[in-house]
Amino acid sequence: QVQLVESGGGLVQAGDSLRVSCAVSGLTFSSSAMGWFRQAPGKERDFVAGISWSGIATYYADSVKGRFTISRDNAKNTVYLQMNILKPEDTAVYYCAVRKRRGSIYDPGRVYLAENDYDYWGRGTQVTVSL
């Protein structure tokens, strides 16, 4: 059974930093592309950041580029999202997602951006940024 468990959310002030984590079990994490999405109140869930199965490639939404960093630790089966210079508009529930199809050695830099590229999701962690 595949499980994703996010942690690290909380209430912070604008300009602060926060790191959210996602622990994955039930599949070969080191061969799986990962992504972070977020959903603000009353809005659709949006892509935030993605990382290839190999870890050599990342991609970010324009709204977070230069402030957020996605990374992975295959020894811990965990993906991270480091968020710096947080803004009130970053307030949302943050979800991690994993793609179950194992990545190809011929395409180690593939990053996935769409929700339907991913097969399993965590329950989310709330991040609230106050002024």
Q: Secondary-structure map with pairings?
A:
Layout: E1 3-7, E2 10-13, E3 18-25, E4 34-39, E5 45-51, E6 58-60, E7 68-73, E8 78-83, E9 92-98, E10 120-121, E11 125-130
Parallel strand pairs: 2-11
Antiparallel strand pairs: 1-3, 3-8, 4-5, 4-9, 5-6, 7-8, 9-10, 9-11
Question: What would your notes on this structure say?
Answer:
This protein is mainly beta and 131 residues long. The protein has strands at 3-7, 10-13, 18-25, 34-39, 45-51, 58-60, 68-73, 78-83, 92-98, 120-121, 125-130. The strands form two sheets. Strands 2, 4, 5, 6, 9, 10 and 11 form a seven-stranded mixed sheet that branches. It has a four-stranded antiparallel sheet with strand order 1-3-8-7, with no helix packed on it. It is globular, with a radius of gyration of 14 Å.
- The ordered H/E elements are EEEEEEEEEEE
Count of β-strands: 11
Binned strand content: over 45%
Query: Mind describing the biggest β-sheet?
Result: 7 strands, mixed
Distance from N terminus to C terminus (CA atoms, Å) equals 40 Å
Structural class: mainly beta
- Poorly predicted parts: none
How many alpha or pi helices?
Answer: 0
- Rg to the nearest angstrom? 14 Å
Q: Helical content, roughly?
A: under 10%
Global geometry: globular
- Average pLDDT value? 96
